[in-house]
Sequence to fold (121 residues):
Amino acid sequence: MYRHILFSLAALIVATGVFAQTSDKKTAILKTPTVQCEKCKKRIEDYMSHEDGVIKCTVDFRKKTTTVTYASNLTNIENIKTAIANVGYDADDVTANPDSYKALPTCCKKPEDGGGPPKKQ
Fold:
């Protein structure tokens, strides 16, 4: 009998913990004006998939935005902006890490630095 009560209590605790974690889910749309192409999109999305608390990250390089869904009990929007900057891209008011930006392929750099999509002739 005690085993049945303990099992029920443990199941209730686990269910409450799962609910608490999912209720802290937030979504933010960040301006990422320096994204240029599919490579930029892939770089940011791949990097963000390893960040603690990030549930989903989608970059739209044509609109120059990044939509991030995250667990606010594990991270916050400032950490997310900093992570994007560490990949080499501006994120809202956070400027790209200069060393990371230098390491980007030419196509992923700003047009004034010789990057961006190929020029039409």
